[in-house]
Amino acid sequence: KLVYSNHNKPVFCCCFHPEMPDLVASGGEDDAAYVWDATTGETLHKFDGWQDSVLKTVWSRDGQHLAICDMSGAIKVFKYPGFSEEWSFEVGDILWMSWHPVANVLFCGTADSEMWMWKIPSGDSKMFHGQGEKTECGIVTADGRRAVCGYSDGSVRIFDLKSGSALHTINKGLAHLDSVNEVACHPNNTIMATASMDGTTKLWNSTTGKCVGTLLSGDRPEENSANSVECCVFPQDKSSNFLITGSLDGVVSVWDTPTQISRASTKVGEGVTKVEIHPTEPHLYAATLDGAVRCLDLRSGNPVTEYTGHTANVLDFSFSCDGSRLVTSSDDGTCRIFQIETPAPQ
Which residue from 296, 268, 263 is spatially nearest to 282, judged by alpha carbons? Predict the structure, then answer.
């Protein structure tokens, strides 16, 4: 429906506002972030003054704050509407950033093995230490009480947010042989998953820190695997037993978590960069290195439709709050708005 081409270099991130279906924030290698209209393509606000590529643009759950960070470690939070700067901070090189699922609390992970937590707008902070390895990924559990971090050496730590202490540390070898690419938490608060470069996804009891299953994408776990699991996600239904993974070899798998058996495994492209589940339809979406986002039936793994037009890797995507549109961002320097087709599941 629309191509937004104000970024003149790769666009690393894009996201719809959680309540305004026309509002998109995006950021990229051009050291700039924009908020723009998804219907007209009009730029509503440009955020200048960054020293490095803009890595993440993330709306708070209530939509009243927009957090933006660049790779060098500068973080700013802007108030919506108006986009007045509300708070700023600088840390080491940032690898990820996200909001608390309920409160206006911001998190980020850094290359110097730290996870930071700030209350917004007061800026009250807490720091959670790793063991010297990069904090590659992190997530807060659905109950908002704990955080899980994955590190570049394959280790995993579970933190209590209130006390700041590490409840469980699972070291390299016991966790993974190589970098943890993503962590996901089931909405029931007890099961979590870690996806790794070693070609495995592991299931954990987040209360005890015990491994309860290993999902293997290749023949055996190995460092720098061609089957590196790049992303994983649980459905937001507390009764669901599914976990979805996407790997570097372009395969999306739907796993049954109690039996640890793959219910469906589908080759969707040259490499999967992100997987998400549609907010209202039983469909999963996978972004690929060949410039497409492909939609599959969550229950069967059968292809439903695809969204094409990018000429390079799709790096990020997001659904509008009403589930009717998809925004994508790519290495080709553009964002694209697609109308979501919702044919009957196959």
Answer: 296
SS3 state at 44: strand
Confidence of residue 223 (pLDDT cuts 50, 70, 90): confident
The residue type of 229 is: V
In angstroms, the CA 220 to CA 43 distance is 48
Integer-rounded Cα Rg, in Å, for the chain is: 19
Asked whether the bond before 279 is cis by omega within 30 degrees of 0, the reply is no
Q: Which two tokens stand for residue 153?
A: 């050496």
Q: How many helices (H) and strands (E) does the chain have?
A: 0, 32
Q: Which of 344, 326, 345, 346 is nearest to 336 (CA)?
A: 326
Global pTM reads 0.93
**pLDDT tens figures, 235-289:** 998 889 999 999 999 999 999 999 999 999 999 998 999 999 999 999 999 999 9
Please enumerate in sequence order all residues whose Cβ is within 8 A of that of 84, keeping only pairs 6 or more positions apart, or say none: 78
Q: pLDDT tens for residues 79-120? A: 999 999 999 999 999 999 999 999 999 999 999 999 999 999
Structure tokens at 155: 């280790």
Say how far apart CA 103 and CA 64 lie, in whole Å.
12
Residue 8, classed as helix, strand or coil, is coil
Q: How far apart are CA 328 and CA 100, in angstroms?
A: 23
Q: What is the largest CA-CA distance in the chain?
A: 53
Write the single-letter amino acid at 200: T
User: Apex CA 287: angle with CA 284 and CA 290, to 5°?
Assistant: 140
User: 319 - beta bridge partners?
Assistant: 326
> CA torsion 327→331→334→337, rounded to 10°?
-20
Chain mean pLDDT for the chain: 94
Sort residue 252 into left (φ over 0), alpha (ψ -120 to 50) or beta. Answer: beta
Q: First CA to last CA across the chain, in angstroms?
A: 25
Residues 8-52 have pLDDT tens digits of 899 999 999 999 999 999 999 999 999 999 999 999 999 999 999
> Checking DSSP bridges between strand 114-119 and strand 105-110, what pairing results, if any?
antiparallel
pLDDT for the residue numbered 140? 96
